[in-house]
């Protein structure tokens, strides 16, 4: 405990400072000064726990000193030395944090007793503050879990509408009126022939999906919590005056990004159920249930998809038919068949506009843009690179105002996708043939065959044979013979023996090699050594 003595009477000040063995009682005397101004400077420089001061001093009284210290150092215990005639005056000092007053003349024992009593109180305060800080830190550490518990209970309808704000305040959450969209993310069922994961790995995969969502949505106004069954709940929030279609489009884009990243990073697919937009806190549990219902319909729509809740069955049936056409469109993309893809796109647009409902057309746009984005991202292509100037419409679909604009946009994007597919196939073909040529050159000394090459490259031998002939203009067998004969001729010219040349180009029998060489070059191999 740090003690500061403030007394203008020199003899009394020295007696208190030097006549008491402060250190033996755990008290550190940081100074003994004669004025309030000196005391303030010393407290600011060193700090103090206890100040023992005379109440009557020139320039600045002990009471004024107490008042000033109370403003910035409320923890300091003030002890006043006062005369009998100043007793009533001293009582007023209580409002300035003075905890004790000692009547003059006071013995050293009386002063020591007062200081030790103040020190005891200060130690108790420090201990209580330490305990409070510990509790506060524990509260801060557990607050994220408390938030998760609150959101989980809110979404699942465990809170009555009247207690929502109260429960939120208990965990330091404010619930302003705003727009909400609940989304549920879940990994898709694994194929039975997928041996990478065991059923027991599901919880780990769900945890990883939750991590992907938190990473991709870190800059988004959303709260993410894992449900008790392991699925991830994302509660998107928007301001009340935000355009609802813009808000919904933003959510759909963010969810699609999470699904794409899940497939890229975890090598599994996930799907999402997107609930309706609500603008009242008490409506959120119902919207959450609808998000769950939307997710359940992936059994109809398939996997790796963000599914919007639809209120009426007819709309759901319509989306089912759209899903069939989308599969046809993806097949056309895989084949690089631009004409067929454009025909399917026309069917999709006619179906989307069949009801004349603007909201359904907008949902179709959001849905189809997500499908096109997933197809592009699945091939490790950049959306901006593939779509070019049309990328701006992916960012703001509201720019597409007419049926003609929508159709022209889709046709352009489809054409670009098919172009990239075909270019990629050409590059892949060239690379495959290059790999074959390298293998042939490095294995001429072996009994090399088309079947063996196809095994090494994990390719179908019939497809490899057709591919090779299309690119090279000759059969695989003819090319291998040509390379062997050229290599053999070069070896013989360099002075190799006939049997050595035969071995190095894959012929086990010299006689067979000589006949093949003579047939190809019109001379015997031995003639080159003469």
Quickly list its features.
11% strand, 21 helices, 5-stranded parallel β-sheet, 530 residues, 59% helix, alpha/beta, Alpha-Beta Plaits, Rossmann fold, 5-stranded mixed β-sheet
Plain-language structure description:
The protein is built from 21 helices and ten strands. By secondary structure, it is an alpha/beta fold. It folds into four domains: 127 residues, Rossmann fold, CATH 3.40.50; 121 residues, Reverse transcriptase/Diguanylate cyclase domain (Alpha-Beta Plaits, 2-Layer Sandwich), CATH 3.30.70.270; 114 residues, no CATH class; 87 residues, Orthogonal Bundle (Arc Repressor Mutant, subunit A). The protein is elongated. The protein starts with a strand and ends in a 9-residue tail after the last helix. About 1% of the residues have low confidence.
């Amino acid at each position: 405990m740090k003690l500061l003595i403030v007394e203008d009477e020199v003899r009394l000040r020295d007696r208190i400072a030097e006549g008491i063995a402060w250190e033996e009682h755990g008290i550190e005397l940081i100074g003994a000064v004669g004025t309030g101004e000196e005391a303030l400077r010393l407290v600011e420089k060193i700090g103090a726990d206890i100040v023992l001061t005379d109440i009557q001093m020139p320039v600045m009284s002990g009471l004024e000193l107490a008042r000033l210290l109370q403003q910035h150092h409320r923890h300091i215990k003030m002890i006043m030395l006062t005369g009998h005639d100043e007793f009533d005056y001293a009582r007023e000092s209580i409002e300035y944090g003075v905890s004790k007053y000692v009547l003059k003349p006071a013995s050293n024992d009386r002063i020591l007793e007062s200081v030790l009593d103040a020190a005891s109180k200060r130690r108790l305060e420090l201990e209580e503050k330490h305990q409070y800080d510990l509790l506060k830190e524990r509260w801060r550490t557990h607050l994220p879990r408390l938030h998760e518990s609150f959101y989980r209970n809110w979404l699942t309808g465990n809170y009555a509408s009247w207690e929502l704000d109260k429960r939120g305040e208990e965990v330091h959450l404010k619930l302003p009126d705003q727009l909400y969209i609940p989304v549920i993310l879940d990994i898709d069922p694994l194929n039975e022939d997928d041996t990478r994961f065991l059923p027991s790995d599901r919880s780990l995969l769900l945890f990883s999906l939750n991590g992907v969502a938190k990473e991709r949505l870190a800059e988004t106004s959303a709260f993410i919590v894992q449900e008790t069954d392991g699925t991830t709940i994302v509660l998107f929030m928007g301001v009340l005056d935000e355009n609802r279609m813009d808000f919904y489009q933003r959510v759909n884009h963010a969810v699609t990004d999470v699904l794409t990243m899940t497939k890229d990073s975890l090598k599994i697919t996930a799907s999402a159920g997107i609930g309706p937009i609500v603008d009242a806190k008490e409506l959120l549990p119902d919207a959450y249930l609808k998000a769950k219902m939307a997710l359940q319909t992936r059994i109809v729509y398939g996997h790796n998809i963000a599914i919007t809740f639809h209120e009426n069955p007819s709309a759901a049936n319509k989306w089912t038919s759209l899903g069939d056409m989308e599969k046809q469109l993806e097949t056309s993309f895989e084949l690089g068949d631009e004409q067929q893809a454009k025909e399917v796109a026309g069917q999709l647009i006619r179906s989307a506009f069949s009801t004349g409902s603007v909201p359904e057309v907008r949902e179709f746009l959001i849905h189809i843009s997500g499908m096109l984005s997933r197809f592009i991202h699945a091939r490790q292509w950049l959306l901006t690179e593939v779509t070019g100037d049309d990328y701006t419409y992916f960012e703001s679909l509201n720019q597409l105002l007419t049926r003609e604009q929508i159709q022209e946009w889709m046709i352009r994007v489809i054409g670009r996708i098919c172009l990239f597919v075909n270019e990629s196939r050409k590059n892949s073909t060239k690379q495959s043939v290059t790999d074959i040529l390298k293998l042939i050159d490095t294995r001429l000394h072996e009994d090399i065959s088309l079947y063996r090459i196809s095994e090494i490259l994990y390719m179908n031998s019939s497809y490899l044979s057709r591919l090779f002939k299309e690119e090279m203009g000759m059969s695989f067998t003819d090319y291998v013979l040509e390379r062997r004969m050229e290599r053999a001729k070069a070896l013989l010219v360099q002075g190799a023996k006939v049997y050595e040349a035969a071995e190095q180009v894959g012929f086990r029998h010299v006689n067979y090699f000589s006949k093949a060489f003579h047939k190809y070059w019109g001379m015997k191999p031995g003639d080159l050594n003469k």
